[in-house]
Structures are given as structure tokens and as C-alpha cells.
Amino acid sequence: MLAIRLEKDLEQEIDLLAKSKGSNRSAVVREAIVRYLEDNEDLELARQALTETRSSKSLKALRKDLGLDG
What we know:
With about 70 residues, the chain is mainly α. It is about 70% helix and about 0% strand. The model has no long low-confidence stretch (mean pLDDT about 90).
């Protein structure tokens, strides 16, 4: 269980969103947290992939390695 304090304006926005979705405040906040965590995980994976794929090979050497230049 997690208890947080929110500004009244933010709480009202969450309530309006929950009402428009036919849901409740807890479900809206839970979904937002899950999406936030997933987005951060995706961002970290993208950063790792970028780091791993950076190469100092020239385009000519890369084309040769891939068999694109005969």
C-alpha cells in the first residue's frame, strides 16, 4: 500500500479522468505509474542499444562486413 499527498487541483483532475473512464482514482493512478515505469524501462533499453551499436567503423568497412560490396 502506498499513500501520497497531492495538490487539490491534481486530485480533481484525476477524479475527472477516472469518472470519464468509468473507473476510480486508484486505478487511474496505478495505470499512470505502470506506464511511467514502462516508459523509463524502454528509455533505458534504448540507451543501452544505442551504446552497444555505436561503432567507429567506416561506412566502407561496414558495407564490406555486411557483404554489400563485392
